[in-house]
Design brief:
By secondary structure, the chain is mainly β. It has helices spanning 28-46, 60-76, 79-85, 102-111, 197-206, 349-357; strands spanning 7-10, 86-93, 99-100, 114-130, 133-146, 149-164, 167-177, 209-210, 218-227, 230-238, 252-259, 265-272, 287-295, 300-308, 316-323, 328-329, 334-335, 337-340, 343-346, 370-378, 381-388, 393-399, 405-412, 419-427, 433-440, 447-451, 475-479, 482-488, 500-506, 513-519, 525-532, 535-542, 552-559.
């Protein structure tokens, strides 16, 4: 069953305040909703429902499983499963006001008169109304083949599940069609008519400088902060071989300090290594991986990193603070905190995984790979895309005000058939969220997921905006009034992996046009883009000879500030 993460709210109903007046000859949808209300009221009354009678344990997993099985059975016209899952009292009101009973619905499906070929939730919420009654609301997109031809539409729905003899049964359904939005006017181009994406990208690459230390053999996945005329860049490095791997204990987290006007490398400081001793703790043996950096203020930077040893222990996310004036790191490290609906934990893979399972994740657990991957600052706070790479798990989180706790807001878990490993997120003009997700296996192309509130996410799906992407980190930034979508193209220059990278721009996040086309045998991969005083800067990974081309970190200017 492919649907977005499901939310479950513990809701108490005060039946003494229900006002009910049946409609006489009213609209069929209103009559059906009235009938559902009557059924629900009768069931609650017959069970002696009161505000204190709600179960303490919310049966979220059982309800999700039951509804997933129901949709699968409807699509497959599986009569035994439908007989098992549908209540004998089923009242199924379609969006065209036709009403089916259990027997008539099963007959229509089994005969092929009605065939569901698509049933994809945009969101699906459950509310427990009594110990044996759950309300299900949300929106879905359906594709149905009928005797009158195919139907494809978006629906808003209300449904009721009832616990019968220990099993959840589908009791009632009412849906209405959601009007399709009007086609937008053709957007005005953001680029001059004579713009050449490749030529402009070539100019950018000509200005890049190497910011890795001379002893570094492998480097990857950089992040940075600029203060004044100085850029502070953190990255994974090792002094043994090109590339990086969470099983390589030689991988360490390092900061490069660079003078922005000249591009001169001023200092490199490794700040987390396998087995390193600090005043308050000694790191366990293992790689120090995927560092990220944020400014706490103009004088202090916070650097996060993961300490991990796959198959040996739970990886842990730490942070270490850096003093800008003295250019020294604090002598101590601290553990980052992960907050989920289940509680507060050390930031490790297990509690992150357990939370996702409750929201429909069906992938094997791993003991490593959790990272604060993409960090964005908005007027209402700092938001972070937290991922677990080996599982293929992503979630939007909020970083609390003291920058220690990552509170998970919404898991992006669907579809389970895709392994979506890394993501970039941003807010759209209407306040909704858009995520672009890297895919391993399958087509390797990127998928997109959306959310109105950051909590409930749509089933990830392909979009025409990226026709031929391949497995690598995406970017999604907003500079001025334009969004910048960065994605690794599957095209290769002389069979070099990750040798082409596109940056497309858009005002609305829907209509995109090509602004940069990077093509180089040195590769152009894992870029990070940030704006400072009107100039857009970047870091990326490049190399000369290794298959991975993960040999050094480069820094430069994507776009100078407007004059």
């Amino acid at each position: 069953m492919r649907d977005q993460a499901v939310s479950f709210r513990f809701t108490r109903y005060d039946l003494t305040r229900v006002n009910f007046t049946p409609a006489r000859g009213g609209h069929p949808v209103r009559r059906t909703l009235t009938l559902i209300s009557c059924c629900l009221l009768a069931v609650l009354s017959s069970n002696g429902f009161s505000r204190t009678a709600l179960a303490e344990e919310q049966p979220l997993a059982a309800l999700i499983a039951a509804d997933d099985a129901r949709v699968a059975a409807m699509k497959a016209a599986d009569k035994p499963q439908l007989e098992k899952l549908l209540s004998d009292d089923l009242h199924y009101a379609h969006s065209n006001a036709l009403v089916d009973t259990k027997s008539s619905l099963i007959a229509a499906l089994v005969s092929g008169k009605t065939k569901y070929v698509g049933f994809d939730y945009e969101n699906r919420d459950f509310k427990l109304a009594a110990t044996n009654i759950a309300l299900m609301t949300g929106r879905t997109r359906i594709k149905v083949e009928t005797a009158n031809g195919p139907v494809q539409t978006a629906l808003s729905f209300l449904a009721v599940w009832r616990l019968e003899n220990g099993s959840w049964k589908f009791l009632a359904w009412q849906s209405c069609r959601v009007p399709e939005p009007a086609a937008p006017a053709k957007p005005v181009s953001l680029l001059p008519s004579n713009w050449n994406p490749k030529a402009e990208a070539d100019k950018v690459m000509a200005g890049l400088v190497n910011v890795s230390a001379s002893e570094v053999k492998g480097a990857h996945d950089a992040d940075f902060v600029i203060i004044g005329n100085t850029v502070f860049i953190v990255a994974i490095s090792n002094d043994v071989q090109p590339g990086e791997n969470p099983e390589w204990t030689e991988c360490y987290a390092v900061m490069s300090i660079v003078d922005v006007p000249t591009g001169k490398l001023l200092q490199t400081t490794p700040f987390a290594r396998s087995g390193q001793r600090f005043d308050n703790e000694t790191l366990l043996e293992g790689a120090c991986f995927v560092p990220r950096i944020i400014p706490l203020n103009d004088s202090t930077l916070r650097c996060y990193f993961a300490s991990e040893a796959p198959g040996k222990r739970q990886s842990t996310v730490y942070y270490r603070d850096f003093d800008v004036s003295s250019k020294e790191f604090a002598p101590v490290i601290q553990k980052a905190v992960l907050k989920t609906a289940q509680g507060t934990f050390e930031m490790q893979p297990k509690p992150f995984y357990d939370d996702a399972v409750l929201h429909g994740l069906k992938k094997p657990e791993k003991d490593y790979g959790i990272y604060p991957f993409s960090i964005k600052q908005f007027p209402d706070g700092c938001y972070v895309l937290v991922n677990n790479y080996p599982i293929g798990q992503n979630a939007l989180a909020r970083l609390n005000d003291d920058q220690t706790t990552f509170e998970v807001l919404g898991q992006i878990v669907q579809p389970n058939e895709m392994k979506l490993t890394e993501a970039a997120v941003n807010r759209m003009p209407d306040g909704s969220w858009l995520a672009v997700l890297r895919q391993e296996g399958g087509t390797k192309n990127y998928a997109f997921s959306t959310s109105r509130n950051g909590q409930n996410w749509s089933t990830a799906a392909y979009r025409d905006a990226i026709p031929n992407g391949t497995s690598s980190k995406p970017t999604l930034d907003r500079f001025g009034d334009a969004y910048y979508l960065g994605w690794q193209c599957a095209d290769e220059i002389n069979r070099v992996s990750r040798s082409t990278f596109n940056i497309d721009v858009s005002r609305d996040g829907v209509n995109w046009e090509r602004k940069y086309r990077f093509e180089t045998e040195k590769s152009f991969q894992y870029p990070t883009f940030k704006e400072y005083n009107g100039t857009i800067y970047l870091t990326c990974t490049q190399g000369d000879f290794s298959p991975s081309r993960k040999e050094r970190i480069m820094f430069g200017v994507l776009e100078p500030a407007p004059k």
